[in-house]
Design brief:
By secondary structure, the chain is of the alpha+beta class. It has helices at about 10, 15-25, 35-40, 45-55, 80-95; strands at about 30-35, 60-70, 70-80. Strands 1-3-2 form a 3-stranded antiparallel sheet. The two termini are about 25 Å apart.
Length: about 110
């Protein structure tokens, strides 16, 4: 084993990485509506729902269903755990791309 960091398999899937990276741009307690997230990511509602469910099961996102007047609204946010996992994932990717140089022994 080379000691290289492992990438979080929940985040590593391309669609979930895009979702997580987008949600990570929100400030602390900010949320985004499902249709807005869908529009930003250019994903179908079904595809986005599947990936959000996987992230929610891991505790990385919080999904709140509410109403704005009489209109149902789904809000999505990255949890504290999700933000930490994304930061760790980012560090792991950087470590893989730029591993520390080791001196060769003579």
């Amino acid at each position: 084993m080379t000691g290289l960091p492992e990438l979080d398999p929940v985040i590593h899937a391309q669609a979930r990485l895009r979702v997580t990276a987008t949600l990570a741009t929100l400030r602390g307690n900010d949320r985004i509506t499902f249709p807005r997230l869908q529009d930003i990511l250019q994903m179908t509602a079904g595809n986005l729902s599947v990936h959000l469910r996987k992230l929610e099961e891991a505790g990385y996102v919080e999904i709140v269903k509410t109403h704005h007047g009489r209109t149902p609204t789904t809000l999505v946010a990255l949890t504290r755990r999700g933000r930490f996992a994304f930061e760790e994932y980012t560090l792991a990717v950087r470590a893989l791309l730029d591993p520390p140089q080791t001196e060769e022994k003579q």
